[in-house]
Amino acid sequence: MSADDIINNAEKELSHQFARIDEIAEYNTKKVLDAFYKNKIGEEHFYTVTGYGHDDLGREALDCVFADAFNTEAAIVRPHFVSGTHTLSCVLFGLLHFGDHLLSVAGAPYDTLEEIIGKRKNDPYHETSLMGHGVEYSEVPLKNDFEVDFDKIPDYVKQNTKMILIQKSRGYSLRKSLSIDDIKKIVKIAKNINPEIICFVDNCYGEFTDKIEPIEAGADIMAGSLIKNPGGGIVEAGGYIAGKKRLVELCARRLTSPGIGREGGAMFNTTRVILQGFFMAPSIVAGALKGAVLAAKVFENAGFETHPHSNENRVDLIQTIKFKNSSEQEKFCKVLQRFSPVESYLTPIPDTVPGYDCKLIMAGGSFIEGSTIELSADGPCRFPYAIYMQGGLSYYHVKIALKGILQEITPEIL
């Protein structure tokens, strides 16, 4: 059987999944359009101001469009967030103070948050972390290393618990990514214990994968990166924070300073691109989701273990494929790199990356450095030797790359 036949057969089996993804994309496109209509977006919003950025109509409208599309009280959307990690850091440091307790309910958070929280005791700059500033931290272990242990959450909530951290996506683990229903359940548990607990959702990779966003599920605040889902593949940098107005303002004052908050900051001619990317985002996310489902199906059929399974409803962009060893990880990434539109001639090799405690292998020639809404794959070179594949500006690009990978990784099935 040829690679074309394998792909075509998989597509036929996935027609019901693709139809569901299309329905969600249409719904979310209408939701974004309504936000543009409500805020009367016009060409005047594409102009920029300099210096302090005072009286920037476009910046104010941009915040309102995100807030309305996500059904929140307020939002701050800026190119000044250097990464998703920086955006999350502004939320954590903006809302947590000496003596507060932070509780992660989905096990250990993503690797790059470890230094922010202060989990790495050998960090020479530990005093800059949350724990270095006197914030307490704990996490609820996963049930069977795979899913949130809802029953155990109350056991870990303390009198001084200020915030519940809910990481929607799996990060570099094999746990289940969290659905909107999961987030609703976590929020309900936390609020029943103490209505004042802040429920914060790390929404990276999750935007527009469902008709409902975390704030609509009861969360107080959420954050994400503009070089992932909401940037539509064209935004060059930045992040967003959305949620209750007071909380967003406190986070904004962490990004800028007290007294400035959301009222300052020149946008460097990025407002139009961010608005355009946000408009495109639901359809771009839909294509990436279809590519992830297709990858799951073809590798399942080839005998590999995948998470999530191809018949599961998607809640984020990440598709995990498990390999036997790091050599197979490396081979997968080398083939995918050859099918990248940018730097296809390079060869990925495992290397150290800031924020991680082991070597990583990464593949994906993207137009924007680090953009994981573009087709890429990466993973830590450690057990269980999983590769985390995500993104794809074009579904057809994912198909082409999968055909090439099938031919080289699993020639025995062709």
Q: Could you walk me through the main structural features you see in this protein, from its secondary elements to its overall organization?
A:
Strand 11 (376-380) and strand 12 form a beta hairpin. The model has no long low-confidence stretch (mean pLDDT 95). Helix 4 (84-95) packs across helix 8 (245-255). The protein is 37% helix and 13% strand. The strands form two sheets. It has a seven-stranded mixed sheet with strand order 1-7-6-5-4-2-3, sandwiched between helices. The chain has a five-stranded antiparallel sheet with strand order 8-9-12-11-10, with helices on one face. With 414 residues, the chain is an alpha/beta fold. It contains eleven helices and twelve strands.
Q: What's the Cα radius of gyration?
A: 21 Å
pLDDT < 50 runs, ≥5 residues: none
Total beta strands: 12
Spell the H/E element sequence. Answer: HHHEHEHEHEHEEEHHEEHEEEH
Percent of residues in beta strands? 5-15%
> Which overall shape is indicated by the principal axes computed on the Cα atoms?
globular
Topology:
Layout: H1 3-13, H2 15-38, H3 57-69, E1 74-78, H4 84-95, E2 101-104, H5 114-117, E3 136-139, H6 153-156, E4 161-167, H7 180-193, E5 198-202, E6 221-225, E7 239-243, H8 245-255, H9 271-301, E8 306-307, E9 319-322, H10 326-338, E10 360-363, E11 376-380, E12 386-390, H11 395-409
Parallel strand pairs: 2-3, 2-4, 4-5, 5-6
Antiparallel strand pairs: 1-7, 6-7, 8-9, 9-12, 10-11, 11-12
